[in-house]
Structure formats: structure tokens, C-alpha cells
Amino acid sequence: MGHRKTHAPKRGSLAYLPRGRASSSIGHVRNWPEYNESPIILGAAGYKAGMTHVLLVDDYPQSPYFGQERVFAATILETPPLMVFGIRAYDLTPYGLNALTEVWAPELSNDLRRNFPLPLNYDYEKALNYLEERKEKVSEIRALVHTQPRLASVPKKKPDIVEVKIGGGSIEEQINYSKQILGKQVVIGDIFKEGQYVDVIAITKGKGFQGVVKRWGVRILQHKSRKTKRGVGAIGPWRPARVSYTVPRPGQMGYHQRTEYNKRILKIGDRGEEVSPNGGFIRYGLVRGNYLLLQGSVPGTSKRLITLRYPIRPPTNIPENPPQISYVSTKSKQGV
Predict the structure, then answer these.
(1) Does residue 11 belong to any structural domain of this protein?
(2) Cα separation of the two ends of the chain
(3) Which domain holds residue 167?
(4) Judging by beta carbons within 10 Å of its beta carbon (0-12, 13-18, 19+), is residue 61 exposed, middle or buried?
(5) What CA–CA distance (Å, rounded) separates 6 from 269?
(6) Do 203 and 308 fall into the same domain?
(7) Domain for residue 323, yes or no?
């Protein structure tokens, strides 16, 4: 038999060009799912603490291991209660959504001053009446929430601000729901439940300026190659006399926004010591309060804010009952 040629194209995907740095370390939700039940906040946020492994019963009927205990990787997010400091109403125009008005809570957290100056002599009733007068124009209601990093193990005091859509019910019901939660804390257990699937939006680990071998997975040339080994053999022909965008080039790698769909919530709790490993998570510490246990991994490094959203394309074969967890590893992650 003769020599078989191998087909080895570059490994990098062209679906995410250009590969530039994200504008913010907080993932921006570009789209929200349809929700038809009673009004609720369709998203949340938490800080990535680290990973561990869990032992749970495989509850997928199609799985060959159905009914048996299996080991899965899991990610712990510390999710201190979110503070709803405002609601924003949007009007649908031919050019997209346009912010119609805002209503801020009568009392705001002092830590919010670290983000921007707080309004003086704010008239809450006037803003609420303005919204009520124009509620026929409103097509979408979103909640303005901020995190409380003082209640987590992240080394900062400045809160992170996230805008979350309120879905379900009519616009009238959404406005009433938003008025109920305005100025109050919302815990993660009020938004999601165990066994539910969520989408994860986050910024990946930044790796700086990298060459084509690491960035695009091209083959390393033989040792007698001219000029370079860790590069492409040619970046293009003489004619057309330009470099195509599909040619692997060095540049920024990592620190990109990515969305991972359908991560299953394995557990929601308020006692962080249940999942904190001995000695704490590396580069994070101990989980102190509310937490979320997700199956699998999520983008980003520890301490990074992870945005969670109701699934925009949920799976069809969702198990009815929450997962049965028999063991969560709390063994030290520091090799001792």
C-alpha cells in the first residue's frame, strides 16, 4: 500500500473573528429567552470559586449507566444575594429597544457610590408615576441589580452591575413584580431550582499575544524549514496580493466572551462549608454563603463574575426530579 495523505487543517474555529479582547470582564447577555409562566428574573450572577468532583446517580433514561452512580466534574459559584437597585422600561421602536424610563430604589447601598455618584433628593414617587402613565408604551422590563462582593470571598468592595430581563406574564404583571423586588435582595434559590438547566455567559481566561501554533493549532514545520518552524509555510499567493482573513495569524488569545449552553444545576445551598475544600479553593479561598453547584466547567478564571441565564434552547429530555448527589469532594486542592 502506498502512503496515505493525512488531512490536518488548522484546529481553530473561524466562527469567532476577530479574536479581540472583551470590552469588559462581565459577560453581556445579548439575547433573552421567551418565558410564559409567572413573572420572574431570568438571570443571575455569581463569582467562580473553583472546581471539584461529585458522585451522583445518572438519571438519563437513554444513558447506558442509568440508575448507577457516576463521577462528574462540577464548578462552584459563590452567589451572594443580588440587590435590585432599579428597574428600566424599554419601548420597541423600528430601530430596536429604546430606554423609556428608569425607577431607582428609595434607599441605595453605599457601595454603589464606588461605581457612580448617587442621585441627591431622588423623587421615587415621581419616577414611579411617570412609569405608570406610560406603561402602554412599555414592551420590556429589566431589573438593574448589583452584586454584594463583601458577602463573598472576592478581594474587592466595588459591586458589579448587571441588567436582567423580567420575563413571564403581561407587562402589567411584570411592572407589579418589579415594584415588589425593587430595593430588596434576591437570593439565587428564588431564581433557579435544582436540576434546572442554565446558560453561562462569561469571559474566558486571557492568554495574551500568542503565535499561530498555540492560537490556531497549525502543525510545527520540520526542523530544516527556512526562517521558522512555529509558523505557517506561506500566508498566501502572489495574486491576489493580500492576506486572507482565513490564514492563521498571531495575536490576542483568550479574554473573549463566550456562551455555554445548558449547564445543569446540581445543587443550590446557603452553607458554603458544605462544598469548600480543606484549605479553601486555590486563588479564591472559602465559600462563605450562598452557592451554586454546576455540572461541568465554565469559562473564566477564579474570582471572575459569571452571568447565568434561563436556557434559550433547553434540551427536550430533562429529568423530572433534581439530581441525587451522594458525595461532594472536599479534599484539599493544594496537593496536601
Answers:
(1) no
(2) 54
(3) 80-186
(4) exposed
(5) 51
(6) yes
(7) yes
Instruction: Report yes or no on 225 lying in a domain.
Output: no
Name the CA radius of gyration of the chain, rounded. 24
Q: How far apart are CA 67 and CA 31, in angstroms?
A: 36
Contacts of 152 (CB under 8 A, 6+ apart): 47, 78, 80, 288, 289
Is residue 213 located within the same domain as residue 86? no
CATH number (domain holding residue 103): 3.30.1430.10
Cα distances (angstroms) measured from residue 10 to each of 18, 225, 231: 16, 19, 12
Q: Domain check: are 267 and 323 in the same one?
A: yes
C-alpha cell at 152: 463573598
Does residue 134 sit in the same domain as residue 67? no
Residue 230 lies in a domain: no
Query: Please, are residues 76 and 119 in contact by the beta-carbon 8 Å criterion?
Result: no
Q: What is the DSSP letter of 296?
A: S
Residues 210 and 263 in one domain: yes
SS3 243: coil
Q: Nearest Cα to 76, choosing from 293, 307, 323?
A: 293
Q: Which residue has the cell 422600561?
A: 89
> Sign of the C-alpha dihedral, residues 34, 37, 42, 47?
negative
CA–CA separation, 248 and 231 (whole Å):
9
What is the residue whose three cell numbers read 505557517? 232
pTM above 0.85, yes or no: yes
Which CATH number do you get for residue 320? 2.40.30.10
Average pLDDT of every residue of the chain: 94
Closest CA to 167 of 36, 11, 308: 36
CA atoms within 13 A on the CB side of 11: 9
pLDDT tens-digit profile of 177-204? 999 999 999 999 999 999 999 999 999 9
Three cell numbers written together for 69: 452512580
Cβ atoms of residues 78 and 46 within 8 Å? yes
- The domain total for the chain is 2
- Residues 115 and 56 occupy one common structural domain: no
pLDDT in tens, 228-256: 999 999 999 999 999 999 999 999 999 99
